[in-house]
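Structure tokens please, single chain.
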Amino acid sequence: MNYWLIRYDNITTILLVVIGVILVLYAQIKINTTYSKYRRIRNIKGITGREVARIILEANGLSQINIYETNGNLTDHYNPTKKLIKLSSDIYDGTSIAAVAVAAHECGHAIQDKEDYSFFKIRSLLVPVVNLISYLGYFGLLVSLFAGVTGYLKLSIVILFGTALFQLVTLPVELDASKRAKEQLINLGLVNLEEENSIKKVLSAAAMTYIASLISSILNILRLVIMLSGRERDD
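Here you go.
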């Protein structure tokens, strides 16, 4: 009986890993292909991501927020502490549909900050804590994999649970920022009806990465719980 239980546990944990990896890879491929497609399509107005961001910020009484160019690909973000938006080069100077969508999304976060959007405030408070537990979590996972120490498995479960909780809070923040982005682009006349659907596809693909990461973390927790219960059963 123990043999079959161990075999079942092993198969289950392997399946959970495979499903998690597939989900994350699919989401990453989706955002990369969607972004690559719409970065080649010029928006009708020919305005840059920086110009879009400035128009949205001014319209929402956020003229004090500065916009900077940053290196990398899809490294765009809003910094609530320094009150600034950083846009990657393709977005900052780009006149593509993708540039408009991403720039507007980051402005969505700035508007959330101004309006004290509850989930945004919670996520901002959790960032330093999660950075620490993520580091400890990877360490605990490595030790548990190679050393097989039950105590580290328990630690990893707790830490991964904290990470999943952060991802759960992050999800509504990102979805709401995308919703605000679309509303701003439409209300300010920055896109036409034909472009709205393309903007939606870019933002939806980005949201999928957050959903996949959350599901992957949950599956990882389940995998560790199964491993832990198997070891406790054998003791």
